[in-house]
Amino acid sequence: MTTSTGTTTGATAFTSGSINVSGLGNGTDFNSLIDGLIKAESVTKNQMTNWKASWQLKVEGFQYLNTKLLALKTTLGGMDTVNEFLTKTVTSSSESSVSATANSDAIIGSHSVVVGQLAQNDILTTASGVSGLSSVVTSAVTNLTFSYAGQSYTISNIGAGSSLTGLVNSINNNAVTKDKVRATTIYDGTSYHLQLYGMDQGAGNQVVISNTGSLVFGAASFQNTQNAQSSMVKVDGYPVGSANWISRNTNSVSDVIPGVSLTLKQANSNASIQIGITTDTDSIKTNIKKFVSAVNDVRNTINSLTKVSNSSGDAKGSLLTGNYGVQIISTQLKDVVTDLGLGFTMFNSSTGQGDYYSALSQLGITTDADQGSSTYGKLILDEAKLDEALAKDSDGVSKLFAADYDGESDSADFSYLGLIKGRTKAGSYDVKIITSAAGISSATIGGVPAGIDGWKVTALTGNAAGLVVQLDNHAANSTYTGKVDVKLGKNGEMVEKLAELTNSTSGPLSILKENYGDIMRGIDDKIAREERRLVNLKDTLKAKYARLDKLLNTLTNTQSQLSNTITQLMKS
């Protein structure tokens, strides 16, 4: 192990810039000792690493909850207007003659429809033809001039030697006229003829050829094979008289029966077709169940993130138990569900004013408060109570869910005229209007002075800003008071609240995520400082134990020399 000079080979090596204390000559494993010391000194770093991981899990919990909130917003956003939420079903006694659809404005009932004639567009076809599509139809560069709906148009510079197909393309590719007329060809078994279609239906949309230039088809060759005409209908016996009809330029008639769009398919002036309109309550129930399910999905998520379990008498919190941001979200969403609808008022049976349904609880939607129930904390639906409400006032039920800033006045003296969506807030506003001999002398909306323009009054500030009412009673020197309700259904209210809560800048989850990010960045700085300390400590320990190893080797060599000397002395 030793040499005559007293040095040890293969024990400790000192090299420039590095220290190796593994496999020491004295048998001590200093590397394991150093690793053990560093491990003991790493407790703080490990605690901070675990601490950071716990904050990261909370951020992931926020992100998961945010995803659920956005999903709820998307679901409710698809049915936050009455037209989306309330379905009216329309039947026709002859679908082959007249079909119809209805929106939420349609009044339940039936109507009779008589179709005198269908609307059609103008079609011109040439009497003469050519033998093939490639047959030349122009002898020189030429123009085609025609009128459509009384307006004159010219297609210029049709090339000399153009074929029938080339002529069709010249007409159809003209930027000015392509939405007026459309060219095509028709084959009669012997010859190909040119056809021109007027693009719009209605009696006034006629095509008249005035000049064909050097085309082989002269102006006189174009024959009216179908005359432009308007549709003619009678609805509920109006107009009276065999010669009188309601006329429209298309076969889609949507402005005769309120909320109903008719599609005319077949004319028969002697037939009265019955159109029936009913409310599709099954569709409304489906939408209400979708609301309940979607809200419960978020409640389940919040519950799983915040619940406290009690196993063997030991209470244990979940990932976000006690988190104030999640508590804010949960409380605000619950308030939307339990509070009266914005702009809705409880029905007053003595005055007959108010809304039959102004809260979801009236429809059988409540929160299960039974802690022993499997649905504890969730919304539950009493379908029998809902069915009763739908039978009584299906429109009112739909409005409670899907009114979209619908304004209503409770006064016979003034009416709601409009609002600025995005500025006017939903709610109930007191209105007071005072008149003089000159007209309106002063007015307030929501207790705040309002702007006056003739007989119109506009809220200028506050939550009512942009709300416009019109005074219908023009009596002088009078005072008129009442209320205007701006209704926002629960779907729309929830969508607006969710937009607030999930806002990427000001939403509580976003703020918490940013705050937690700051905390984690602070922890990262501490971990980095601790890692530098451990590296320096390890270097210090390596140097220290390397010196100790050198000393031990020196002592070991000295001991060996003394032992050799004593042995030699004893032999002598």
What does this structure look like?
By secondary structure, the chain is an alpha+beta fold. It folds into 5 domains: 13-41 and 520-571, no CATH class; 58-86 and 281-307 and 317-403 and 489-502, no CATH class; 88-119 and 230-279, no CATH class; 123-226; 406-485, no CATH class. Helix content is 34%, strand content 28%. The chain has 9 helices and 30 strands. It is extended, with a radius of gyration of 44 Å.
Write the layout of secondary structure elements.
Elements lengths: L12 E3 L2 E3 L9 H12 L1 H35 L4 H4 L2 E5 L5 E5 L6 E9 L5 E4 L15 E7 L2 E8 L5 H9 L8 E7 L4 E7 L8 E5 L10 E5 L4 E5 L10 E3 L3 E2 L6 E5 L3 E12 L1 H26 L1 E4 L2 E4 L6 H15 L26 E3 L11 E3 L1 H20 L1 E6 L4 E5 L8 E10 L2 E7 L2 E2 L1 E3 L2 E3 L9 E4 L7 E10 L1 H12 L6 H64 L1
Antiparallel strand pairs: 1-2, 3-17, 4-16, 5-13, 5-17, 6-10, 6-12, 7-8, 7-11, 9-10, 13-14, 15-16, 18-19, 20-21, 22-30, 23-29, 24-25, 24-30, 25-26, 27-28, 28-29
Helix pairs in contact: 1-9, 2-5, 2-8, 2-9, 5-7, 6-8
